[in-house]
């Protein structure tokens, strides 16, 4: 079995959209493949995110999506690793780690200051992966969020 990790383009939308839809369902959203496809298509068309997709035998089995940001203190680009998902039938094969490695390689190549991510407090499997990839829980800053309608 060959696992291909590549930067997604609009041509990969049909591989990534179903994964993105399942990712959203994991976090309690309703199934809506058309919404997922439209959202990802807009991000790719506008260059507003970078998506890496994992493909096995022509089938999308995982993805990660990153959004650009900046650090004023570090005066450099930084990246928010916002989404990471691997299909249940493709887990425990190192695909999540390979997607995270692709994200790191891209960020390092762009001279980014850091990669940041967040996950649900009860998503212990994801937290273990992130720690094993070198991510550390931020003990210096409290993060706050203002939810807008």
Description of the molecule:
- This protein has 4 helices and 5 strands.
- It is α+β, with helices and mostly antiparallel strands.
- Strand 4 (76-86), helix 3 (95-109) and strand 5 (115-117) form a beta-alpha-beta unit.
- Helix 1 crosses helix 2.
- The longest helix is centred in the last third of the chain and has 15 residues, at 95-109.
Q: Regions with pLDDT < 50 over 5+ consecutive residues?
A: none
Roughly how much helix do the residues carry, as a percent range?
Answer: 25-40%
Q: Characterize the main sheet.
A: 5 strands, mixed
Number of strands: 5
Per DSSP, what share of the residues sits in E-state strands of 2 or more residues?
25-35%
Question: What is the rounded distance between the termini?
Answer: 45 Å
Tell me the series of helices and strands, N- to C-terminal: EHHEEEHEH
Structural category is: alpha+beta
Number of helices: 4
Structural Rg = 15 Å
What is the general shape? globular
Q: Give the spatial strand order of the biggest sheet.
A: 1-2-3-4-5
Write down the overall mean pLDDT.
95
